[in-house]
Every structure is written in C-alpha cells, then in structure tokens.
Write a structure and sequence with these properties.
Strand order of the largest sheet: 1-2-5
Radius of gyration: 13 Å
Order of helices and strands: EEEEEH
Number of strands: 5
Structural class: alpha+beta
Helix content: 10-25%
Number of helices: 1
Number of domains: 1
Shape: globular
C-alpha cells in the first residue's frame, strides 16, 4: 500500500496523492485512476466527489456582490 497525502487548497479542492479509492459522502467507492486527483471541498460540484472548478464561479459571485 502506498502513502496517501491530502492537501487542502485555500478556496479550492483537496488535492489527493497516492489514493486507490475515494469514498464519497454516501460511502460509495470511486476508483482513482490517476496519481493525483482533485476532490471537491465546496460541495457545489456536479461531478461529486471530483472537483469541477465550480468553486471559482462561486468566488466570482461573492466578489461581485461585495
């Protein structure tokens, strides 16, 4: 079994290195086919558990409203 590392990107996804499987909020397993994947941390993605960069749109809306 290889080492798995998770890094939270401020305002963005969690970068996961070395995982074989990711569990979503419902406990479903998602096989990882790449050495590095981005997992959604904002909860807005349409491709859960993977990040689809929706957080960027959300941040733009927050700035425009300020």
């Amino acid at each position: 079994m290889s080492e798995c590392r998770v890094t939270q990107i401020p305002g963005g996804p969690r970068i996961v290195r070395g995982a074989d499987v990711i569990l979503d909020d419902d406990g479903n397993e998602h096989r990882v086919e790449r050495p590095v994947v981005a997992v959604c941390a904002c909860g807005l993605t349409q491709r859960a558990p993977w990040c689809d960069a929706t957080h960027k749109v959300s941040q733009v809306k927050k700035v425009a409203q300020a």
